[in-house]
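4.2 Preliminary Data

To establish feasibility before requesting continued support, the project team ran the inverse folding procedure on a target of 206 residues. The structure was first converted into the token representation described in Section 3, and no sequence information of any kind was made available to the design step. The complete token record follows.
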């Protein structure tokens, strides 16, 4: 059997490498992506594409992080970390502490350079477990998203139309914060659409 080689940058098989689609973009807010291990190397995850497109972003893989290491990532460069996560319904199996309020000062234009957006990459159940296992994440203020469009991410199932991929949700959040200009956000959406097209064309017939 012929050995399959993966691209060291995007981690996809070289025959389906998506690096040519990547368009690096500078952003006014730092992005920290915490990716569930089962998403790492998954053909249909968008976090690595997002990481490669956003200059200065960081991607770490794990489910339960060492508190000292996670704390270092959250306070690095003296930035204020905010979690991108929707309101959480009660779940007796994975109970969460209520998050603190997001200070209005943190999201003002003059303060954006001090902001770090933390994104959990995984299914809803996986991301909630990550939140449950890492109390430091529960202690972060959360950024609510408003006026969300329906997701274009048709190659993986979502329970509801407003449930976006990590790529879509992060770009929407950064645009809402005005950390991305309109042209930058449109450019990233174009990358996402091209990536979706490449994924669809490489999928085996059903």
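Position-by-position output of the design step:
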């Amino acid at each position: 059997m012929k050995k399959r080689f993966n691209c060291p940058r995007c981690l996809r098989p070289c025959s389906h490498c998506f690096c040519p689609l990547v368009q690096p973009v500078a952003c006014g807010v730092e992005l920290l992506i915490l990716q569930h291990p089962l998403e790492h190397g998954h053909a249909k995850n968008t976090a690595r594409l997002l990481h490669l497109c956003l200059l200065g972003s960081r991607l770490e893989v794990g489910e339960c992080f060492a508190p000292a290491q996670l704390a270092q990532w959250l306070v690095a460069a003296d930035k204020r970390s905010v979690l991108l996560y929707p309101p959480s319904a009660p779940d007796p199996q994975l109970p969460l502490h209520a998050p603190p309020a997001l200070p209005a000062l943190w999201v003002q234009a003059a303060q954006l350079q001090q902001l770090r957006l933390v994104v959990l990459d995984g299914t809803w159940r996986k991301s909630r477990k990550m939140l449950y296992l890492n109390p430091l994440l529960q202690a972060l203020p959360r950024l609510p998203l408003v006026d969300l469009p329906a997701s274009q991410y048709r190659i993986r199932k979502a329970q509801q139309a407003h449930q976006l991929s990590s790529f879509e949700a992060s770009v929407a959040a950064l645009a809402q914060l005005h950390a991305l200009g309109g042209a930058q956000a449109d450019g990233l959406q174009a990358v996402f659409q091209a990536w979706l097209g490449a994924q669809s064309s490489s999928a085996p017939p059903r």
